[in-house]
Amino acid sequence: MSIVEASRDNGAIDPEVPKSTGRKRKERSIRGSQNTTGWLFMAPAVIILVLFLVIPIVGAVWVSLSDWTGKGSPLGAKFIGVKNYQALLADGGLAQKDLATSLRNNMYYVILVVPLQTILALTLAVILNKRRLKGKGFFRTAFYFPSVTSSVAISLVFLFLFTASGAVNRILAWLGINGPNWFADPRGVLHIVLNAWGIVDMDNPPAWMSEGKFMNLTWFQWFSGPSVAMCSIIALAVWTTGGTFMLMFLAALQDVPVDVDEAAMVDGATPWQRFRNVTLPALKPTMYLVITLGLIGTWQVFDQIYLMGKGGPAKSTLTPAYLSFQTSFIDGKWGQGTAIAFILFAIIIVMSSIQRYVMREDKKVPKRKRMVFAETPATSTGSAGATTTAATLHESTPPKDKI
Amino acid sequence: MRSTRLVKSAVAGTLAATLLLVSACGSSNSTADSSSSTAPAADGSAAAQSPAAPAGGADLSVLIGSSGQVETDALTTATDAWGKDTGNKVTVAPAQDLGQQLAQGFSSGSAPDLFYVGADQVANYAKADNIAQYADGLSNAGDFYPALKQSFTYDGKFYCAPKDMSTLALFINNEMWAKAGLTDADIPKNWDDLAAVAKKLTADGVAGLALAPERDRIDAFLVQNGSYLTDDSGKVTANDPKNVEALTFVKKMMTDGTLQTPAQLSAGWSGEAFGKQLAAMTIEGNWLLGAMAKDFPTVKYTVAELPAGPTGTKGTLVFTNCWGISTTSKYPEQAKALVEYLTGSDQQLTFAKAFGVIPSVETAKDAYLKEFPENQAFVNGVDYARGVVNFPGITDVLADFNAQLQGLATGDPKAILDSLQENLSAAIG
User: Fold this and answer.
1) Is the CB of A314 less than 8 angstroms away from the CB of B7?
2) Which of A67, A153, A154, B16 is deepest in the core (most CB within 10 A)?
3) Residue A210's CB: how many other CB atoms inside 10 A?
4) What was the ipTM of the complex prediction?
5) CB burial class (10 A; 0-12, 13-18, 19+) of residue A265?
6) pLDDT by residue (tens digit) across B70-84?
């Protein structure tokens, strides 16, 4: 108390004063005006956030519960409860079928793109992180290039590559493969495979698959796999985003202390063991970031879809984001379009939570084991690092309950 | 001391930022204010005068889904001339994405005064009260072709004036035709003829007929078989046996390989496949004439009317845009006068010469055919053509039909039409 008094008297801020004391002492405290100042400095950002983020989101919630026709302010529209959501999720009409189709397409897109782009990015990053690689700068630029190029330009190039007589099919022809007509082929890949193996006749699906329906789409349609057209968009997505995530992995890899790796080498770990047990655990936070960004980005895919066929052929590249746009702007059903956006939002939240749960820190692991990488960077010397790594490697082999 | 300086600078910064925001928002507000203050005056004077000669001084904005610079320029020239005569100001702007830009305009109450409306959107806009119902009152209202008027009639009322029209016809590559030993007498009169010549014309790497697998083309076959998605009273007749028969015929040509889609031929659209001589025939509208002249000037071709169905019924589809007037327009009378001028016989003939459209009024027919005798097939088509089915809220149903037609080659025509029947009935209610 006296310290605070004293410091106010000579007008200087004492760094020793604990924060909590300052906050409790409300208007009499020197921190009080700092608080106001802080808010004032933040005001422009807060105002902009409220104006362009909070209000529009609240407005969108309202639109999704109203019968707004797109004319004038949505505030004048009639409240119709959850009717829009009902049409999408329960009524069994075309709206529900379209949403189910788009969710199916996007699900396969996510299932393929997220792991593939993560693996590609990690592989490229590991290669670029090799100390003896020549022309590193060139490769780094080359791999990153697709990420900084406009997605419109890249999409157009892919459209040309994947036409029936395009470069991809020419190359396949050299190998004796008769390539499909990529962007015009709505057949599901799983269907094609099952058909080729003679398990299921694609044009005449067995009754047990075509009878049952979920969200107005038969199980047979759910298990179509991505369409051939979607596969080319998947290739595009993996190729363009791989570079961005490579950069993140590269940054993380450069933070992995070299001495830990060397220590593991001294202990006789094989390159794979070093990668699996030393490098990968160190990359966990980045892995988490990449997968989270990947999940969110892939569920929201819009621009490639818009450019490369607007959901066609036969709705096989339709995604919820594009469906939302189409329902609102083309069909004029604004409430329903906004409702799709919120359903998509819910899906992304659920997916991210599941992923957070799966990738959570394992609390059962002994503390010293978790601390390995927190300790090593600055403090540990070569030999200390070696001992710790050896311990880590040793401990990771037996099952946890034995420790 | 230090903290007061901090507060001062924070206050100053916030003030400056807020001012900036306010001034940015304010600038658009002030223009809106100034225009709305002049509006009542203009409205008043317009109401006072006869509708035939509305007052000048209006500032009309026109948004068009332009086919290209030529169309924009021709329209700008025409509206400038009208503006000079009547003392109004007209600004023509081509849209990047007409539907989206209009949607933004409608919701903010700042839609352009005049804009293109596709026949598939007219019911949606009319139902939401976005476009004014004015076309009955035009002096040339009786001059438009009946099929076109039907396209823009919602709830029994003729909403907006068709600006021009396009119909589908059969394009035939002369060289390939002669090579296959065919003569003018062989031009297909009915489906059997069409299948026969398509088979003869199909060769290695060349399809007999290129056809986009979408309802804007395939529906013509339904009309030729004496049916359509709805009958004249508006009842849904999508799964009529005649329609099933028509789709089955198209499917057979697809599975025979005599009919191929543009994608199968590595072309962006049927017209490109035809121009690149990857197909000997195609079914397209008169927009292909301009594209051929521009991109494939050396390819010689003939245009014929579409073949009739088995019962001899002729059928084609007519496509058109109309001049929509926004309900929020401050100068509805002036906008109407401009539409009257733009859809007048003379002006439409000027547009026909400039960018290849066909006039939507009957009084221009003879003059047009005199100028473009080779386009007889398109003009004849309007007599037996059907327009787009226009009910509000069916855009997604028709899009679904389109999607299903893309799988026609392996699909079941009856199942496709059954699901269309179900969805259409549900949407129209």
Assistant:
1) no
2) A154
3) 13
4) 0.72
5) middle
6) 889 999 999 999 999
